[in-house]
Amino acid sequence: MSQRTLSAEKLQEIRELAAQWGRIVARRAFGDAGPGLDIDFSTMEQIASAATAGLTEGTLSTLLDQQAQSLPEAPACPDCQRPCPVSYEDRTLTAKGGQLPLREPICHCPDCRRDFFPPPDLLASGRTQLQPRRGRDDR
Ligand SMILES: [Zn+2]
Asked: What are 68-113's pLDDT values in tens digits?
């Protein structure tokens, strides 16, 4: 099943599922008795923020891994159409709500001496969220 966007109903269903996980997070943080009166709203927000970051990381990591696994073994170079093997580079992806480690697929065409990211139409939609490429000593 492939679809470019999810329906409003599906997104609402996912939000309700995450809200149920929020109840689990709250119980995990303070037990069944809940927070004491000495716990302020800012602390509660910190917990919700950590949960959101973890949810973002887990969701995007899973989806990107699944997408990478469905790449062809040797995507065609956009210039000369030569099949080029996929290799991977580890980097950090900044997304709405957090950062996550990304194992980014990359191809190199020895004939054109260029790198390309396969397949351009599949991964292009998320690329506007990517951080600009930085030197290795920046990690
Ligand atoms: Zn080429």
From this structure: 888 888 899 999 999 998 898 898 888 877 778 888 889 999 999 9
The number of folded domains in the chain is 2
Domain-terminating residue out of 43, 69, 95: 69
Question: How far does the centroid of ligand 1 lie from the alpha carbon of residue 81, in Å?
Answer: 6
Interval 7-46: pLDDT, tens: 999 999 999 999 999 999 999 999 999 999 999 999 999 9
**Distance from Cα 117 to the centre of ligand 1, integer Å:** 12
Tokens of 103: 């194992």
**Measured in angstroms, how far is the CA atom of residue 59 from the centroid of ligand 1?**
34
- DSSP conformation class of 130: S
Q: Which domain does 114 fall in, by range?
A: 86-132
User: 118 CA distance to ligand 1 centroid (A)?
Assistant: 13
Residues 65, 118, single domain; the answer is no
Instruction: Report how far apart, in Å, the C-alpha atoms of 83 and of each of 8, 68, 91, 103 are.
Output: 39, 17, 25, 21
